[in-house]
Amino acid sequence: MSQTLGYAALDPNSPLAPYSFSRREVGPNDVKIDILYCGVCHSDLHTARNEWNNTLYPSVPGHEIVGRVTAVGSAVSAFKVGDVAGVGCLVDSCRTCSSCGEGLEQYCENGFVGTYNGPAFGGGENTLGGYSDNIVVDEKYVLRISHTDNLAAVAPLLCAGITTYSPLRQWKVGPGQKVGVVGLGGLGHMAVKIANAMGAKVVLFTTSPDKREDALRLGAAEVVVSKNKEEMAAHVNSFDFILNTVAAPHNLDAFVNLLKRDATMTLVGAPAAPHPSPSVFGLIFKRRRIAGSLIGGIAETQEMLDFCAEHGIVSDIEMIRMQDINEAYERMLKSDVKYRFVIDMATLKAA
Ligand code: NAP
Ligand code: ZN
Ligand code: ZN
Hints:
Keywords: Metal-binding, Oxidoreductase, Zinc. By secondary structure, the protein is of the alpha/beta class. The chain has helices spanning 42-48, 98-101, 151-154, 160-170, 186-197, 212-218, 229-233, 253-256, 280-284, 298-310, 325-333; strands at residues 2-8, 17-23, 30-39, 65-72, 84-87, 90-92, 113-114, 134-138, 143-144, 178-182, 201-206, 222-225, 239-244, 259-267, 289-292, 317-320, 340-344. The strands form four sheets. Strands 3, 4, 5, 8, 9, 16 and 17 form a seven-stranded mixed beta sheet that branches. A six-stranded parallel beta sheet has the order 12-11-10-13-14-15, with helices on one face. The longest helix is centred in the last third of the chain and has 13 residues, at 298-310. Bound molecules: NADP nicotinamide-adenine-dinucleotide phosphate and zinc ion (2 copies).
C-alpha cells in the first residue's frame, strides 16, 4: 500500500478538505502515476454533493488526470517509468460482455468501474479519484498522451474532450453540416473546438451573452443567446445535429424545434433534477430524436487524444490551487468558468 494525499468530501454539505488514504500496491498489470494536473468536471460537483443520490463517502473526485509514470508492474508493456500518461473516467470494466468486447467499456453490461465513486469488482473499496497526488491503474485503462507541452490544458480532454468527441463521431458530424452546441462550459467549449475541427459549421447556444466573443474565438461560426426568442426563431428546422451540455434542467423544446427532419439532439448534460418533459408533437411531426451519450470507451478516448494532438486542440483553462476547489465549485454553479478549472497538483502538498 502506498500513502496518498488527496482532497475529499466526507458528506454532501461539508467543503472538500485534505484527506489521507492508501493506494493498492502496483500489481503486475498496473501503472502508478504521480498526478501533475486534474481537471474539474461538473460531475465532480454533482458527486461531492450527492446530487445524483449515489455518492459513496469519503469521495475523492477527479477524472481528468494527467501525470508521470513512476512505477510499472512486471507484465506492463505499453508504459515505462517517466512517460506522461492520462486517466479518464473509468479504470476497469468486466472485459467479457458484448459492450466491453466492442471497446464500449462505458456501457459495460456488468457496470464499469468509475475512476471515483466506483465500487471495485469483487466488492473492493470505493475508487478514489484524481484530486490526489498519485493513482494506480491497470495499463488497459491508461491513455497515451502525445501532446508535448501545455499538459495542464490536456487534462480536460480526458472527460470533457471524450464526452463531446464520442457523440460527434457517433452521429457522424462533418463538413457541410450545421451543428449546435448548447452551453459554453467545460464540455461545451470542447464540443465547439472538436466539431469545428471535424469540419462542421458550429452554432453555439448560451445563456451568457458575455461569452459571445469567446465562442467565436473558439470556433463557433455564430452565437445565439438562447433566451432571445427572435434569435432562436431564425434557426427553426435547420440543424443536422445538436449536442446539449447543459448541467441544469431546462426547456428542451426550444432546441428540438431547431432540428431538421430526422435530426437528433443528444444530451450529455446530467442535471440533478429532470428536464421538463419535451413536447411529443415537436418530435413526431419531423421524426426528430432526443438521445443520450455517456463519456467514451478507452480506444475512442485514445483516438480523441490523438485527434486533438494532431489538430492542436487543448482546453482553455484556469489553473487553480487545490485549496481553491470549493470556491471553484461555487463559480461553476454561476457558469463562471473559462472554460475549465484545472488543479495544479503541486499545490496539494502546501494544502
Ligand atoms: P459546466 O462547465 O458547469 O458547464 C455547463 C454550462 O451549462 C454552463 O457553462 C452554462 O453555459 C450552461 N448552463 C448552466 N446552467 C444553466 C441553466 N440553468 N440553463 C441553461 N444553461 C445553463 O459543466 P460541464 O463540466 O461542462 O458539465 C456539463 C454537464 O455534463 C454536467 O451535468 C456534467 O455532470 C455532465 N457530464 C456528463 C457526462 C456524460 O458522460 N454524459 C460527462 C461529463 C459531464 P452558458 O453560460 O453558455 O449558458
Ligand atoms: Zn467528467
Ligand atoms: Zn463489460
